[in-house]
Amino acid sequence: MEVFRLQNKKYPIALSGIGAAMIGARWNSKGTEVIYTAQNRALAMAEVAVHLTLATMPKGFAMITIEIPDDLEIYILDNKELSKSWNTFPENIETQKIGDKTIRENKFCLIKVPSAVVKGEHNFLINPYHKDFHRIKIIHQEDFPFDKRIFK
Asked: Between the chain's N and C termini, which has fewer beta carbons within 10 Å?
């Protein structure tokens, strides 16, 4: 399976959950490393674009293609576990607790979660603590210029 990550090139292009651990996000609290990826390029772009404005027109981004071996078991979050307000902004502590617990249990290298940005789409969280993490590889990187029409 291939997943995608849109990343600012001012940071090293690597599979690291350090950035997410520094600030926390929807599926992790501060201190918990996790790597956010999307099921397709458009979702990866949308997940980044919602945090940007025309005033901060993004430059210097790269679309990363990540290969995940098909035999890795994926924890698929059941939407029934989520409250009606799971996708609010700022992030809900409820979703952070779910992500932190799943990472801490370390049973799965991948967690499939719903996108809060695009209903019906999914993101894949990569657990950098899992024993199979070393099998996940970046296989392609290309510059990603944002279309200015998105930020009108």
From this structure: C
> Residue 25 — pLDDT band, cuts 50, 70, 90?
very high
Residues 20, 86 contacting (CB under 8 angstroms): no
d(CA 42, CA 27): 20
Instruction: List, for residues 51-60, the tens digit of each pLDDT value.
Output: 766 566 677 8
User: 93 phi and psi, to 5 degrees?
Assistant: -60, -30
- Tens digit of pLDDT for each residue in 86-127? 988 888 899 999 999 999 999 999 999 999 999 999 999 999
Q: Look up tokens 């995608």; give the residue.
A: 4
User: What is the pLDDT, as a whole number, of residue 66?
Assistant: 98
Terminal Cα-to-Cα distance of the chain (whole angstroms): 34
Tokens of 96: 């952070």
Distances (CA, A) of 147 to 47, 49, 52: 15, 11, 13
For Cα atoms 87, 22, 54, give the angle at the middle one, nearest 5 degrees. 60
